[in-house]
Amino acid sequence: MEAGYQNLRLTKGRSFGFAVTYCQEDGEPVNIVGYKALLQVRRQPTRDSRLVLEFSTDNGRIQIPEPMKGELRIGINPRETEDLLEGDWHYDLILYAPTPKAIEMGGSEGNIGSEKTVVPLLTGRFSVKGMIAEVPRDPVELPEPEPEPEPELPDVPTTLPEE
């Protein structure tokens, strides 16, 4: 199976996340029970290139909430994105069997199967951009509003005329 191609964009200081469902060509979800997932962002599209960011089931940045339905959720919180290096990088998202037992668990029809221990899911560009506006850290003091002048009232007689 060839990986799908999708460009991703992360803004520093903001949360980032997306979901993926691994399906067969007919649209049926693939059982990924026992498998782990890994998304690596690198400077160049080579294994020996510098690692910029990593998402994995081991570090908690990838969750597999519904393995029988092929569901993965990838995410990172704003605090973790603040100091990322800005640039246009490359990424791969893969599923892999950490042990032979995991392969056996996924080995029936409609599953990954024992002949595939690494499954490429997605690949593409991964852009990390900064925000242009800087959020002030201290509260901004606004000036007190000027009091409005009292409107001038016309002179009205205070006594009534006699009849």
Describe this protein's structure:
This protein has 163 residues and is mainly beta. It has one domain (4-129): Immunoglobulins (Immunoglobulin-like, Sandwich). 6% of the residues lie in helices and 34% in strands. It is built from 2 helices and 9 strands; from the N terminus they run βββββββαβαβ. It has helices at residues 78-81, 100-105, and strands spanning 4-5, 8-11, 16-21, 36-42, 51-56, 62-63, 71-76, 87-96, 118-129. The strands form 2 sheets. Strands 1, 2, 4, 5, 8 and 9 form a 6-stranded mixed β-sheet that branches. Strand 4 and strand 5 (51-56) form a beta hairpin. The protein is elongated. Mean pLDDT is 84; it is low at 107-115. Residues 136-163 are annotated as: Disordered. Residues 141-153 have a biased composition (Acidic residues).
Summarize the entry for a quick read.
It is built from 2 helices and 9 strands.
What shape does the CA trace take?
elongated
- Written as H for each helix and E for each strand, in order along the chain, the element string is EEEEEEEHEHE
CATH class equals Mainly Beta
Q: How many structural domains can be distinguished in the coordinates?
A: 1
Helix content: under 10%
Mean pLDDT: 84
Name the CATH superfamily assignment: Immunoglobulins
Largest sheet: 6 strands, mixed
Beta percentage is 25-35%
Rg over C-alpha atoms, rounded to the nearest angstrom: 29 Å
How many helical stretches? 2
